Amino acid sequence: MIISKSFARTYDEVGKTHFFTFGVLMSIDNENNQESTEIQIEAGNQSWLQKVEALASKIAEREGCQLYDLEFVSRVLRVYIDKEPQAGIADCENVSKGLSLILDVENIVPGEHYQLEVSTPGLDRILKKDWHFERAVNKKIKLKSDAAFETYGVDSERWKKSRTIEHVLAAVEQGSLVFNTAEGVVKIPIAAVEKARVVFELEKNEKNSKKPNKKK
């Protein structure tokens, strides 16, 4: 689920497009597209994103949730929240409202405009941080490492030349991911993971739903 995906649009006399979402007015100057500003923004992303991350984390906790991840791509600030057993639409709305207001007041996000999206990470969620992997134990995940598995001590003929694996994550031990495969144990350091995500699988009883009986 994603909150703030769609926006109402109006135009004023100076040719600006306005997007209004959850009480925050953001403007795009249609006449001035300053590429140099974008370059400066990219160079300074780390510091202001860290500030946004801290604020988003506090607001999520206030709403009974946890900040899962955030990213800023193509002028879209995406914030992902989670909670047990599951974050819902109301949670996304509440976090979006609170974060929108404070970002507007603090004027943290650089540039003329941005779009804020607050959503849950989904069932096929991306895994980045140690605690992401810890929550994914006993679930099937897919990952790609930065080097062949033999670099990290894997000696199985099946796996040592591979850089990818799709298997149930058995454990997280001392910063490494442990997979118990039929061909042996595969252990990959979290620091070596280039990208990873949960592989969503329907339960067997959902997958193989009963077909209605045919009338004789």
Q: Could you explain the architecture of this structure?
A:
This protein has 216 residues and is an alpha+beta fold. It folds into two domains: 2-119, GMP Synthetase, Chain A, domain 3; 130-198, Roll (SH3 type barrels), CATH 2.30.30. It is 25% helix and 32% strand. The protein is built from five helices and 13 strands. It has helices spanning 35-43, 45-62, 89-106, 130-135, 204-207, and strands spanning 2-3, 8-11, 16-21, 24-29, 66-73, 76-82, 115-119, 140-145, 164-168, 171-173, 176-181, 184-189, 193-198. The strands form four sheets. The protein has a four-stranded mixed sheet, covered by helices on one side. The protein has a three-stranded antiparallel sheet with strand order 2-3-4. Strand 10 and strand 11 (176-181) form a beta hairpin. Helix 2 packs across helix 3 (89-106). Residues 4-44 have low confidence and may be disordered.
The CATH superfamily of the largest domain is identified as: RimP-like superfamily, N-terminal
| Biggest sheet statistics | 4 strands, mixed
Please tally the helical runs, counting DSSP H or I stretches of 4 or more residues. 5
Tally of domains: 2
Kindly estimate the percentage of residues that lie in beta strands according to DSSP.
25-35%
- Kindly report the oligomeric state of this protein: single chain
Average the pLDDT over all residues and give the rounded result.
79
CATH topology call of the largest domain: GMP Synthetase, Chain A, domain 3
Helix content: 25-40%
Overall spatial form: elongated
- N-to-C span: 44 Å
CATH architecture descriptor text of the largest domain: 2-Layer Sandwich
Number of strands: 13
Order of helices and strands: EEEEHHEEHEHEEEEEEH
